[in-house]
Structures are given as C-alpha cells and as structure tokens.
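The following block was generated as part of the benchmark described in Methods. Ligand: iron/sulfur cluster.
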Amino acid sequence: MILKDAILKGKESINEAPRDARLLELTRTTPKVMIRILSMSLMNKIESAKKVTHNEEIKAAIPTLAGSIAATLADATLDKFSDDDTQFLKFHGIYQQDDRDKRKVAKEYIFMIRGRIPGGVVPPEAYAVFDDLSNRDGNQTLRITSRQSFQFHGIAKGGLGPLMKGINDALMDTLAACGDVNRNVMSPPAPAMDGIALEVRDDARSVSAALLPKTRAYHSIWVEGVQLNLEDPEHKDFVDPLYGKTYLPRKFKTAFAIPPSNDVDLFTNDLGYIAIVEAGRLTGYNLTVGGGLGRSHGNQETFPRLADLVGFVTRDQLTAVSQAVLTVHRDYGDRTDRKHARLKYVLEEKGVDWFRGELESRVGFKLQSAKAFAFTSQGDHYGWAKQADQRLFLGLFVESGRIKDHESYRLKTALRIVIDRFKPEIRLTPSQNLILANLDSGNQAEITAILAAHGVPVENQGTLLARAAIACPALPTCGLALAESERYLPGLLTRIEDLLGGIGLAGEEIIVRMTGCPNGCARPYMAEIGFVGKAPGRYQIYLGGNESSTRLNRLFRDNVKDPEIIAELRPVLERFSKERNPGERFGDWCDRVLLKEAAASH
Ligand code: SRM
Ligand code: SF4
C-alpha cells in the first residue's frame, strides 16, 4: 500500500512512490471522506518536501563560502569542522573524512584534498611539490582521479593549512574542485594528438576559468591565512556574478573530447564538447548537455543518463555557451532534493528541444546543427610512443591511480627521480593513469632503466584487464562507501583472468569498473562489466557497455556476494566464447544477445 506507507513513513516513501500511482491508489482504496483528510496530509508532506535543502540555506547565508573555516583551522583544540563548514570546505577542494578502518577503535578525522587541474596537466615543478606534500602531510600516496586530478588522502587537521599553502605556492589550486560549482574540466591527454589537442586544451582551460567562482574566501583563508571579515560590506553582500548567491543546486561537470577517442567519457558530463576538425582545422564543437551517472539504491527517481546532443558551437562562442548552460542548471535545477538536483534531471523532464530554446534565448543566437562525428575507442596508450612533434611520451599504468611505493614496486620514488631529472610535462588521464610528455629520444634508455630499477616496467605494464579497469577509492577513506573497491578489484580481476584463461578467452580485453556505492565515481555504468557496491562484500553486476563508451550498461544481477561473482560470470562468458560474432567484444555481445533475452523474459 503505497499511500499508507507514505503516510506512515513520511516524505521518503512519498518521494519513492510515482505520483500517478499515488493518486490511483488514493481513489481506488479510500472512502471519500478519508480522501480529503489523506490528500491534505499528503499535500502537506509534499509541500514540506519542497522546502529547499539545508545546503541552500547556508550558501544563501554566507555566499562567500568562508563559513568559520579559518577560525576552526586556527583552533588547535578542535580536530574537526562543524557540519556547515564541511559543506563550505568542499568548495575549497577539501573533504572531511575519517579512517573507516579505525572506526571500531575511535573516530579519527582526516581530510582529503583534491586539486583543480584542467586537462590534467601538471608542470614538473608542481609535481615535485605535490610529491613532497603527500609525504609530509598526507598518507605518502598521490591518487590520480577519474577526472584527471590529484587527491591527497589522510591529512590531519593541522596539516591542512600548510598543504593548501604549498599547493598554491606551486601555482596550482584546489578552488572549485568540489562543491556545487563547475568541477575539474577534462580534455584529452594523449600527446599523439597534440596540435589539435593543444588547442582543445586551451579551450578547456578558458572554459574552466570562465566558470570559476569569484569568492575571495579561498585566497584569504589558504593563501593569506586570515578569516574573511564577513562584516565588511564587500563580503557580507557578496553575490557571485555567474553563480549568484546560492551557486548551483549541485555539482556540474565539463569535458572536451576529440573523436575518434572518447577517453574522457564525454556523455557522462553535464556539459560536453566534441571537437570538430574540418580540413585539418578545429572549427568548433558539438555541444552535449545533461549527462551524469549518480544514482541511489532503491530510489527509482535517480538514474545514470547519457548527455543529449544539442548542436554545434564555434570556438568563440564557447564561453557564452558554457556560462549559459551553467545558468540553466542554476535556475532550473531542483534545490529541494540533492539526489534529484543534477542538470540531467532538467533535461530528462523538460527535453532537449526545450533546453536548446532556453539556451538560445540566453546567448542571443541560434545554434548550428550538430556535425558528423564518430567515437570508436577509449583508454590510454602504455609505453613509449611518438608525440605529434616527434618528441617522445611515456604512458604509465597506475593501478587505481594510486601513486605509491609498495615493496619492490616503487613507482613513487622512481617517478620523482625521472621528473626531477628530465622535467617532463605530467598529464593525468581520465582512466587514472599518467603520461610523461615532451621527452627527448636521447633520454629514453636512461628513463626506462631508472623505472626498471624501481620495479616499474615500461613494456607489458599490468594485465590486459587491469590496464582497462578503473576503481574508485571507497574504503577506508570514502564516507559513502558501502563496499570495497580500490583495495578489492585487483584480486577480483586476477580471478576473472583465471576464469577467462580456463574457458579459452585468454587475451580478451574486457573493460571492468568498480565502485563501492552507486554514486558512480569510476563510471561503472559505462563498463562492459560494472560492479557497484551494495553492502560489505556484495555487488550489483552491470553488463553491456561498449568500447567507445557511448552506451549505458544494464543491471544483470543484484546483490551478489563473492564468491558467487565468478559463478555468475562463468556461464555468461562461456556462452559469449561460443556465440560471439568474429571480433565481437563482450559488452556488445551482452547488449545484442544476453540483455535482450533477459528483457524479453520479463
Ligand atoms: Fe565522485 C562523491 C571520489 C569522480 C559521482 N566522489 C565522491 C566523494 C567525494 C565522497 C563524498 O562525497 O564524501 C568521493 C571521495 C572518495 C575518496 O575518499 O577519495 C568521490 N569521485 C571520486 C574520485 C576521486 C573517484 C576516482 O576513483 O578517481 C573522482 C574525483 C574526480 C575529480 O577529480 O573531480 C570522482 N564522482 C566521479 C564521477 C566520474 C566523473 O565525474 O567522470 C562521478 C559520476 C559522474 C557524475 O558526476 O554523475 C562521481 N561522486 C559522485 C557522486 C554522485 C553524484 C550524483 O549526481 O548523484 C557523489 C556523491 C555526492 O556528490 O553526494 C560523489
Ligand atoms: Fe565513494 Fe561511492 Fe564514489 Fe566510490 S563511488 S568513491 S564509494 S562515493
């Protein structure tokens, strides 16, 4: 009884029940006199559900986003920030976490800091600073993220100020790496595409700069080390010229891609630009809007969604279009429910034609029609290769993006030696790997030898499955994790590889991604096999993504406990091995055969 449950349990079940079903239930089952009482109660609950979230209230109260961060930072007796300040801290690129491995003993507050690194480009001098800071103030690792940034984990409160100052002194920053703003802008990192790619990277940087919030709080707290005076009218009455007083209803993500590679997973972004090259010249971009992956278990109103293709824009229209897309989210996104607040829901509910009209009225010109393009691949190149300018680059596989020293594999130390000595440009990839770019061929042998001496191969890096996989951090740092991911996936991949070898599929590349919860940080809903944490040791299995990352996969099995994961995959992989078309990938076969059968039998 949806209605009864709704009234008993309140808002949560009301939101879960589809609106039409609620009305139908009401008219079918309830005597007339009760209908009035119940519908009033229902309306009250729906009305109260429409109240803006607490996040909206605190943004409106302190639009500089300063909160009382500086005061808490200066108070050494406090080991954590207030709930409101933890929300403000996100806009500064900082998350308050606790080490979940230690929770049973005591809650130990630690912090995660995320950089803002458009296109994932890190100068060698900045890398050296990051490396030092991670050793001094963090947990001795640097974590490459799935959006081409770095994260520091395990920072104590006392280390926050020095680490943030260090990042800014290295001419890098963390502003807007998190929070209800535009996040790190992605662009293709592969040096083999440089030329066009450098122009695209410039455009990505311009868009990133055009979408930055203007608050002075970041600089004042982390660079000058003082609390912003919120009584000063300049700050008290501050309104961001683009974001307004309350910023966006939720996060907003932007990426640029250059076909045929979809290495940035373009369609999972709120705002996407597909480079269009005509007669060897970058003429502009196809615009995509409304992608996003986050969902919640048991909440049908949340779902992954691929972005819509909206039209074509020229390079000089980029800033205006990007700002206008962002303001549509600002003005139409749902501020009453953070689970339903992404731009994708506006697109889903109002449609792409409405969106195009709204956008055109904001920018004051008509968009051209989208131009032809085709994505065929994703992923990174590993090992040595030539750049467009004939210099060399080296693609290095980094398991789950975690740069660390572990036993005889001393990637962190080796990288530091190579980067200090040869000064390559570092590029972080959306698949959590790393590229050392702009190297002279004369240094190739020495670099290879340094890496080898630290247990880091440049040929045959990682296994076929590991090289194509992504895992989110999950436990022990992520407060939202329901299951392991980064620490668990490598072992599971080995077992899947054993399975593949045993059924004649050795050497088969399958894109596997895992997350510790349904938020989708490793983009599992685009993988050929996606594992999504449901509870400790339990995962949902999704199948059917494709190599070009243009198709969402679908749920195949729910709540599978290891070791049944392998037992569930075995018959499917055996069938694939027998029934596939020549050269057909696993994800394509699942989509063409398995999932169609499953849909037909429902
Ligand atoms: Fe994410 C929240 C890690 C990319 C969707 N994400 C988190 C937090 C901050 C947990 C939290 O809110 O307390 C995680 C920190 C864990 C930790 O200990 O480090 C976290 N997300 C990551 C990273 C580090 C995963 C990784 O393996 O690299 C990625 C950082 C990217 C960056 O540099 O900016 C990361 N997150 C993503 C992506 C993939 C992408 O953007 O390409 C997604 C799915 C795409 C999307 O946004 O729809 C993603 N993260 C989420 C969500 C769900 C948002 C939603 O719309 O529902 C959350 C939860 C939230 O925001 O409340 C989340
Ligand atoms: Fe945490 Fe979930 Fe993101 Fe993994 S997917 S990092 S568990 S929020």
